[in-house]
Amino acid sequence: MPLLNDILKFNASFVDNKDYENFITTKKPSAKAVLLTCMDTRLTELSTRALGFKNGDVKVVKNAGATISHPYGSTMRSLLVAIYALGAEEIIIMGHKDCGMGNLDVDSVVKTMKERGITNQTFDIIEHSGINIQNFLGGFSDVTANVKSNIETIYHHPLFDQTVPIHGLVIDPHNGSLEVVQDGYKKLNQLT
């Protein structure tokens, strides 16, 4: 529990010193965009700063691998809410090189789970309920293909507004350089 104690001690000082004033913004993103990126620690600040965004410019959705794993899951819901309720007019899907979800060894993850007390019975129950653990925990072999797959999932979603551009990027977590996977404006021109 030392981490929680450190957090609470820091927070008390943060509030007392009014450091929060540096982060005051509105609920709506001023750049009118939502960014889906990975939860990798190297991207905590880099994912927005390398794109030229500051606090309040974009809605940021993060998960393992910047992946939409289900068209009706929380990631897709967050993107739709950003568009329809929070004023986002563009989507940026940004994967990154050297991602931990690239070629993730699911068997190793399952082994660690078992070592930490998850029983075979639990895995059997999950499998019998129709969830394939390999698919559920699995990653991807190609970050560019993963970004493209996410873009296609969004474009084919029945609740998605087809006039919203979706940009696809891959960032290098070592230096912040970007590769364009898809220019959302060009894609929109092709669709119209």
UniProtKB/TrEMBL annotation:
<feature type="binding site">
    <location>
        <position position="99"/>
    </location>
    <ligand>
        <name>Zn(2+)</name>
    </ligand>
</feature>
<dbReference type="GO" id="GO:0004089">
    <property type="term" value="F:carbonate dehydratase activity"/>
</dbReference>
<feature type="binding site">
    <location>
        <position position="40"/>
    </location>
    <ligand>
        <name>Zn(2+)</name>
    </ligand>
</feature>
<dbReference type="GO" id="GO:0008270">
    <property type="term" value="F:zinc ion binding"/>
</dbReference>
<keyword id="KW-0862">Zinc</keyword>
<comment type="similarity">
    <text>Belongs to the beta-class carbonic anhydrase family.</text>
</comment>
<dbReference type="InterPro" id="IPR036874">
    <property type="entry name" value="Carbonic_anhydrase_sf"/>
</dbReference>
<keyword id="KW-0456">Lyase</keyword>
<dbReference type="InterPro" id="IPR001765">
    <property type="entry name" value="Carbonic_anhydrase"/>
</dbReference>
<feature type="binding site">
    <location>
        <position position="96"/>
    </location>
    <ligand>
        <name>Zn(2+)</name>
    </ligand>
</feature>
<protein>
    <recommendedName>
        <fullName>carbonic anhydrase</fullName>
        <ecNumber>4.2.1.1</ecNumber>
    </recommendedName>
</protein>
<dbReference type="Pfam" id="PF00484">
    <property type="entry name" value="Pro_CA"/>
</dbReference>
<keyword id="KW-0479">Metal-binding</keyword>
<feature type="binding site">
    <location>
        <position position="38"/>
    </location>
    <ligand>
        <name>Zn(2+)</name>
    </ligand>
</feature>
